[in-house]
Design a protein that fits this description.
CATH topology of chain A: Pnp Oxidase, Chain A
CATH architecture of chain A: Roll
CATH superfamily of chain A: Electron Transport, Fmn-binding Protein, Chain A
Strand content of chain A: 35-45%
Oligomer: homodimer
Shape of chain A: globular
Order of helices and strands of chain A: EHEEEEHEEEHHEEEEH
Largest sheet of chain A: 7 strands, antiparallel
Number of strands of chain A: 12
CATH class of chain A: Mainly Beta
Helix content of chain A: 10-25%
Number of helices of chain A: 5
Radius of gyration of chain A: 21 Å
């Protein structure tokens, strides 16, 4: 497996056994998720903004309005930190202290670049659409030139990155295992509910399979 | 409804109709969520760390190991940005451009304070436990003095904060409503799956009701 270079920023200070720098592990988490939290600082003031994303090879793509404060700041090439977090369950231990969560997360450090070329920009918007709702792009109206111009797309290298994963049952102090209290994991999962048609949709248009069968887990 | 003061940092530059500074709206989002993303900067380098939290009145509480880089940085009183994001659905429009997400998010700016007093610290750990799994605390072993000392608890005022909410169907360009393509919302929801008992749990201990009936939505 390809290992990303480990830097001071991506070295876990605590519980290093939970960490990974393997590209395959990182990619799998990024491909299951679809919301990232983008961090940046302006004059020392941190901002954390949630947004959709796509992975295209070893790049993370984000997009939004040309007017977005976040995108205008990031396209100047300032340091960014992008975090993706998947919650897998609540870990109920016998002691308050050892309660935990099962999760898989990725943190990426780096500087974003503006995607300017028209073809690359359209490819990025396609990737963002396919990452969010695979199969959707072929059904919809593609962006006009004006829409393309109103949209900023940024690309962040997935290069200085690490994953952190917790799985499995609680880890209690040995003497607490004798306690008569339930312990284990309550798994959590993001699921879809019944699709809600737009009130303006004609009655004869069926829900597409990619909506009915939508799921994030591979 | 109580309105929080609006500052430059909490003023939405785009789509201000989606924003709110009402404490009740903010609290409702914070009470449904249980993971926040904490942003801070060290020498201009931003970090975004996901972690559990609780709301206790008009404070946001976070906690973790004394050794945590994040908590050690934040307890010095540096600027923080804490974001909570709840995903409610994918919004499928007729054009690629108008695809969106339904969500409810809160962003809080401020500086955290260390909770040092033993009684306040224990109350905060109780609040964190109850926020994550209501009803759990009474069943488990409370923290020892050593565990209390290994745990750092920080309190952030929910004072300079705003909510941002998108709900409802897609908003398409008028001419696109004639397209013969499905449009609407695919609701998403975080649900629990069947509890998994710790392999070391004796067979005669039942799953508590607060695990069986666990849900985040009120």
């Amino acid at each position: 497996m390809q290992q990303l270079r480990q830097t001071q920023r991506t070295t876990l200070k605590r519980l290093p056994k939970r960490g990974s720098h393997e590209r395959e592990v990182i990619n799998q988490i990024l491909d299951e998720g679809f919301i990232c939290h983008v961090g940046f600082a302006i004059d020392g003031q941190p901002f954390v903004i949630p947004t959709g994303y796509a992975r295209a090879g070893d790049k993370l793509l984000i997009h939004g309005s040309q007017a977005s404060r976040m995108l205008r700041a990031l396209k100047e090439g300032i340091d960014a930190c992008v975090t993706v977090m998947l919650i897998d369950g609540l870990v109920l231990a016998r002691s308050a202290f050892h309660h935990s969560m099962n999760y898989r997360s990725v943190v990426i450090f780096g500087r974003a670049e503006l995607v300017e070329d028209r073809g690359e920009k359209l490819a990025a918007l396609f990737a963002l659409s396919e990452h969010m709702i695979p199969g959707r792009w072929k059904d919809v109206r593609e962006p006009t030139e004006a829409e393309l111009q109103q949209t900023t797309v940024l690309s962040l290298p997935i290069d200085e990155a690490s994953a952190k994963i917790r799985t499995g049952p609680p880890l209690d102090d040995e003497e607490d295992y004798a306690m008569s209290v339930w312990a284990g994991v309550l798994p959590l999962r993001l699921v879809t509910e019944h699709p809600m048609a737009d009130p303006r949709l004609p009655g004869n248009i069926a829900v597409p399979d990619y909506v009915i069968e939508y799921r994030r887990k591979p």
